[in-house]
Write a structure and sequence with these properties.
SAM-dependent_MTases_sf, globular, five-stranded antiparallel beta sheet, Rossmann fold
């Protein structure tokens, strides 16, 4: 899930390993630049198909061909797709997450940053899957722009990106519902996160929540066709990008 710097403590991975080994109450403390500390149960990464939000189930229905699952976490989406007969490669930057996925039976797993040149070793994919606010893996507006170009090298002809993100402008609403943020500052959807498990604190990493209009602008500028497949009342959406 994270795009944090290697060599720092792998807080996410350690929490996933603990849960997988039977510590079912394992939780992550998530610190962000826009909200109070949140508690994230490791169990969330192990959810079954019917525990997944409808938007994620829709994304799985829309997958086709060879799938590259980016930021795959504990592999819940990759395992579901495998059960449906898909050929899936699951990737995460967290070594612990990779270990958990291998132990859970994900057949193809690799530990990579999404920008890693060795990510696919030249292989092309029909679907790039980026769930759990997966656009966030790109980190920043500059990272989003960079990834949209990079993804063209990963996609087979006629391939698609299926991704989710959210508009978090509601965090900046005042009591009257007006938005209050610095128009000359960084994009309001750029957030910094740090995860902590037990006494281990991972490095701070960048995460972006791209509002639909911004995502469409960036994707169309990069030459993609944009199709919004689903939206919910939490300002989250599922988008298909084809190139």
């Amino acid at each position: 899930m994270s795009n944090s710097v290697p060599n720092a403590p792998d807080a996410l991975g350690q929490a996933l390993l603990a849960y997988h080994r039977g510590h079912l109450s394992a939780t992550l403390a998530v610190h962000s630049s826009v909200a109070d500390e949140e508690v994230l149960p490791a169990s969330y990464f192990f959810r079954s198909l019917w525990e997944m939000p409808e938007m994620e189930r829709t994304a799985l229905e829309e997958c086709r061909g060879r799938v590259l699952d980016l930021g795959a976490g504990a592999g819940c989406h990759a395992l579901e797709l495998q059960q449906r007969g898909f050929s899936v490669k699951a990737v995460d930057i967290s070594p612990g997450a990779v270990e958990v996925m291998q132990a859970r039976g994900v057949r193809e797993v690799a530990c990579h940053d999404i920008f890693d040149a060795a990510l696919t070793q030249g292989e092309k994919f029909d679907t790039l899957l980026m769930l759990m606010n997966g656009i966030g893996l790109t980190g920043t507006l500059a990272g989003l722009e960079r990834f949209l170009e990079h993804a063209k090298t990963l996609l087979a002809p006629g391939g698609q990106i299926l991704a989710t993100s959210s508009d978090i402008s509601y965090l900046y609403e005042d009591e009257e519902g007006a938005l209050v943020f610095d128009l000359n500052g960084p994009y309001y959807g750029e957030v910094e996160y740090t995860m902590q498990y037990a006494q281990q604190t991972g490095s701070t990493f960048h995460w972006i929540f791209a509002d639909p209009t911004l995502l469409q602008d960036y994707a169309e500028a990069a030459g993609y066709t944009v199709e919004f497949l689903e939206e919910d009342d939490q300002q989250q959406y599922l988008v298909r990008l084809t190139f």
